[in-house]
Design goal:
Layout: H1 16-24, H2 33-38, H3 40-59, H4 74-89, E1 96-100, H5 106-115, E2 118-123, H6 126-138, E3 145-149, E4 162-168, H7 177-187, E5 188-201, H8 210-223, H9 231-241, E6 244-250, H10 272-277, H11 279-294, H12 302-322, E7 325-334
Parallel strand pairs: 1-2, 1-4, 2-3, 4-5
Antiparallel strand pairs: 5-7, 6-7
Helix pairs in contact: 1-3, 4-5, 7-9, 8-12, 11-12
């Protein structure tokens, strides 16, 4: 197991204060949805400062789920999921697409190669932006893929300047989806399309069920979210922003039933992530992390980062099994051609 697997961002020797600030936003005594929405930029930026390196070791350069089929490698399922969205966008060479919350740029690079379009990624986390730029240069895609370090709620681009907009499980970090979609509507050209994979609560979620509410809170804490919208509430946000909704479908059931979207987190798969997520694997990682912290080979506080990541992963598995949550509700929408 690589030591860097357990290292939060950069060369910091102690991330305990950063962890405390992050977890305080989710504390049932002092944290609240309203507070997280108010401080969403700090919430998201701080979360990815702590977890980006760990995500990359377990997930590669594309931080999202995908439907999967028997015999299909995990990476292949991720790329297929990206290609499917690009096809729904009708993205072509010569067009410019905006990747909202682009992470370290895995989807950006794949979609640029697949479609021949130019892709602009927007991300408020400097560490991820710097990594994405390095990866783009290494892939010789720096002329086709560019980065903006900015808040996607306030995009530094002119009105009607982008042909297509997409997001892979990133708009779930927004404090107000209608406000975000209005901003995306603003930069999109008339007749342009937007396609997003969104984290949503399904119709099976019961807001009066204490177990469901706890799973929702744990997903939010483990994944840097201010809140989680329902499928219906998300649909309404598109209309409120002025979009014409073309498609709204939960893609979670698109793969084989025996390989659900949360399979890699369930501890049942013979992979690096799967083994670490088994009961034995979690125990070994916890002990190893503490030992590495003790000899200063991992920043102090790394164990706490692993704990809230496991909290979120456990909640994702449980909510997936209960059918109350999906990370891949696909929404395809169009800005009317007559829009100014």
């Amino acid at each position: 197991m690589s030591l860097s697997l357990l290292r939060p961002v950069g060369l910091a020797s102690d991330v305990r204060e950063a962890v405390l600030r992050y977890r305080a936003l989710h504390d049932t005594q002092g944290g609240s949805v309203a507070l997280r929405r108010e401080q969403y930029a700090e919430l998201v930026r701080g979360y990815y400062d702590l977890v980006t390196d760990i995500y990359e070791r377990g997930w590669g350069d594309s931080f999202h789920f995908a439907p999967r089929f028997h015999g299909e490698p995990f990476v292949a399922s991720i790329k297929r999921h990206q290609h499917y969205l690009a096809l729904r966008l009708l993205l072509e060479p010569g067009m410019t697409a905006l990747d909202v919350g682009c992470g370290v740029g895995g989807p950006m690079r794949e979609i640029a190669r697949f479609t021949g379009a130019d892709v602009i990624g927007i991300n408020n986390n400097r560490y991820q932006v710097e990594k994405a730029r390095r990866y783009n240069r290494a892939a010789r895609l720096q002329d086709q893929c560019s980065l903006i370090e900015a808040d996607f709620m306030r995009i530094p681009r002119a009105d009607a300047s982008i042909d297509r907009v997409y997001a892979f499980e990133a708009t779930c970090h927004a404090p107000d989806k209608t406000a975000l979609f209005r901003e995306l509507y603003r930069v999109l050209k008339p007749g342009g399309r937007m396609a997003i994979y969104e984290w949503c609560l399904t119709e099976r979620f019961d807001a009066h069920n204490p177990e469901h509410l706890k799973l929702k809170r744990d997903i939010e804490e483990g994944n840097g979210l201010p809140d989680i919208w329902t499928l219906e509430a998300t649909r309404a946000c598109f209309a409120d922003a002025g979009f014409r909704l073309l498609e709204a479908v939960d893609r979670a059931a698109a793969g084989d039933r025996e390989l659900p979207w949360y399979h890699s987190l369930s501890g049942k798969e013979l992979s690096n992530t799967g083994l670490r997520r088994s009961a034995l694997g979690k125990h070994v990682v916890r002990m190893l992390t503490r030992a590495l912290e003790g000899v200063k080979l991992a920043p102090r506080g790394t164990t706490q980062v692993a704990e809230f990541l496991n909290l979120g992963a456990d909640a994702l598995v449980a909510s997936g099994e209960a059918g109350i949550f999906t990370p891949m509700a696909l929404f395809v929408a169009e800005k009317p051609a007559s829009s100014a």
